[in-house]
């Protein structure tokens, strides 16, 4: 183990303990960790500076302005009243309706953070309509957002299998013998996503804190209600801009526009048309989740660039030994990425482990389909720490959660769904057919 790798692990321990201990604000802990990585040479200054202009950060910032602009209109009141009426006054039915909307949006190619910032103001309004604190629903809702991608075979999800087959071919597998079909991910993931939604509606809601543990930073429906309604022109602009941004994000792959450009233009239009004034726009900027995400992303980059992630992945794959039990193999290939993705981005964990898993399958002479899906599904369950997914620090800030609160809500779900996947995937895709 190199000096850089030891330092990287110590910084990682500092970040983890800091999030749990909370003697410093979590954003301060994240940026302190980033500073330590830069000073010790584990992270290049140029790379660190680039994180502040990361496209996810830009989307996060400007989508907050667009979402707050919509919240300034009467749409959340009107839509919440309509959903309330349709649901027959049932909180569960109302909450389920918003989850179905998220499931559909997540298949279009929109990022999780875009889906969350668009939809969570409606969750806030819904909670207030039923007399609950938003802290009861925001994180359970966020768990559905994080895990809802690549379930139904339309939008970007319809071509995911082509990319998967490309990786198989690149590592020497014969596609006439081993290849994914368009519906394979749906077969694996649809039941777990339904279970995640059911858990979030019931157990997750009950385990959520009745009031925020920490101060919140997000769209607050009550504050908006106290302000006078917008003039008709500005009200209409709020609707048109928001839904225009939504459609543009859904069609971004076809039009070629970058999501951050769409969010940026939408935010500018919100200001130009007067839906929000400059003070309202500044007040809604998500500084806390932004700093948490930047620090967490810095930690993930350092794990990758120093080879620490590769080292961990290689050691764990070697630990598999010579077993031929497909459930033990799939459990191993699931648990390793599941743990890794809680502390670095899911794409980083997936990119580190994908070649190792495919090479291990080639060496064992087994089908790569099951193990490949294990790492893909495991890295989609990144919701136990703010380092796991950009949506999580935003949800923590909006709902006023600390690390202990999200572990209380998320850990039982993560363990249960992981156990389901470990038995479900090799049942559908045996390693030795």
Task: Please name the defining characteristics of this protein.
globular, 71% helix
Strand and helix map with partners:
Layout: H1 3-21, H2 26-39, H3 45-51, H4 55-72, H5 75-86, H6 91-106, H7 112-130, H8 138-147, H9 160-170, H10 184-207, H11 221-225, H12 232-250, H13 252-255, H14 259-272, H15 278-283, H16 287-305, H17 308-318, H18 326-340, H19 346-364, H20 369-378, H21 391-399, H22 403-428
Helix pairs in contact: 1-2, 1-16, 2-16, 4-7, 4-12, 4-14, 5-7, 6-7, 7-8, 8-10, 8-21, 10-22, 12-14, 16-21, 17-18, 17-19, 18-20, 18-22, 19-20, 20-22
Question: In words, what does this structure look like?
Answer:
Helix 7 packs antiparallel against helix 8, helix 17 packs parallel to helix 19 and helix 18 runs parallel beside helix 20. It is built from 22 helices and no strands. Helices cover 71% and strands 0% of the residues. About 1% of the residues have low confidence. With 433 residues, the protein is an all-alpha fold. The protein is globular, with a radius of gyration of 22 Å. The protein has one domain.
